[in-house]
Design brief:
Two copies of one chain form a homodimer. Chain A has helices at about 5-15, 20-35, 35-55, 70-75, 90-95, 125-135, 145-160, 185-190; strands at about 55, 65, 80-85, 105, 140, 165-170, 195. Helix content of chain A is about 45%, strand content about 10%. The first copy, chain A, is built from eight helices and seven strands. In chain A, the strands form two sheets. In chain A, strands 4-3-5-6-7 form a five-stranded mixed β-sheet. A two-stranded antiparallel sheet of chain A has the order 1-2. The first copy, chain A, is elongated, with a radius of gyration of 20 Å. In chain A, strand 5 (about 140), helix 7 and strand 6 form a beta-alpha-beta unit. The N and C termini of chain A lie far apart (about 60 Å). By secondary structure, chain A is an alpha/beta fold. The first copy, chain A, has two domains: about 1-55, Helicase, Ruva Protein, domain 3; about 75-170, 3-Layer(aba) Sandwich (Dna Topoisomerase Vi A Subunit, Chain: A, domain 2), CATH 3.40.1360.10. The interface between A and B is large, with 53 and 53 residues. Bound molecules: zinc ion (2 copies). Chains A, B: Keywords: DNA damage, DNA recombination, DNA repair, Metal-binding, Zinc, Zinc-finger. Chains A, B: Belongs to the RecR family.
Chain lengths: ~200, ~200
């Protein structure tokens, strides 16, 4: 393949990333080419390393480089509390707030009748087994304040009722808001003021 | 380096691309990881190929994979007309309009007293020598309608006056507008209605 075809293919593929369109993809590719040593080559290397090493944690669904993620294997993280989030972006948002010291469970989405996503398409059975097998005292449902997010929270609450303390993020999460858009302070306040389900 | 550090480094580097910030870089990286086979691995490969093969055309400054670019070596492109543009993004914009059948000269920027960019920082001496050496009958100055773009156009016109027919894109280029933002029809109209300097 010729260099100009590679460049065209690179632009087409970059344009498929969320937040980028054809024009911003063209600008990004030209910028990378201009900064070949600083940007294009290191980006290619990093992407290659990540593609080869990245995998989902078998316990919580977080991404990392081994069978279990850094958080699940960290001795600094408590085992009593599990914070349930929809996806890894939400886990990252929680970690940026740096207020939660327990472990996570990444569902991989929400229940959705429209998209035919049921409990088995998500990591819900694994959550139920973790609660049975680990020394879990509290499950914090940190799902987005959307219809699907709240439907999912209620479904999980039904599954776990009576087995563990169930709480949800409360104060500060705006109606219809998504966790990944919130500032750290709001997330901190919501966690501190969490309420019983 | 651990996978999570690679992921963090990848996000940091993606956030430095034009049009992306930290949040959109995080979303883009998660999206790429979710579509590892379709997106992350092929993107890494393409970036690597481009980084290894891309170079500037010795004649016109366009990017390609050889000493001379695809346009300079194409037998379908006329040698009589040279279209002078600021950068490769503008060349791409002209090519998308598909109305110009000659060759290009990419300056690599504009003259700028503020940024201390003089004629020798740009590809202006090479343009003057091309006009002397090739069978050039017309130089079309397709520079942006900005102050620096027009200053540069006047400087080039001074250098080439009396040696070649000099024209500029005219009708349709909005005041303060940049070529790369225009639709194909506007560029076509501007080229067709080009006027003598
Ligand atoms: Zn884990
Ligand atoms: Zn060329």
């Amino acid at each position: 393949m010729s260099a100009s075809r590679d460049i065209d293919a690179l632009i087409d593929m970059m344009a498929r990333l969320p937040g980028l369109g054809p024009r911003s993809a063209r600008r990004a590719v030209l910028h990378m080419i201009r900064k070949k040593e600083l940007l294009l080559t290191p980006l290619a290397d990093l992407m290659h390393h990540v593609a080869v090493s990245v995998r989902e944690c078998e316990t919580c669904g977080n991404i990392g480089g081994a069978r279990l993620c850094d958080i699940c294997t960290s001795e600094k993280r408590g085992t009593g509390e599990i914070c349930v989030v929809e996806d890894v972006a939400d886990l990252w948002a929680m970690e940026r707030a740096a207020v939660f010291k327990g472990r996570y469970h990444v569902l991989g989405g929400t229940l959705s009748a429209l998209d035919a996503i049921g409990p088995d398409e998500l990591r819900i059975p694994r959550l139920v087994s973790r609660v049975a097998e680990e020394n879990v005292t509290e499950v914090i449902l940190a799902l987005n304040a959307t219809v699907d997010g709240q439907t999912t929270a209620h479904y999980i609450a039904d599954q776990l009722e009576g087995r563990v303390r169930l709480t949800s993020l409360a104060q500060g999460v705006p109606i219809g808001g998504e966790l990944d858009y919130l500032d750290d302070g709001t997330i901190t306040a919501a966690l501190r003021a969490r309420k019983e389900l």
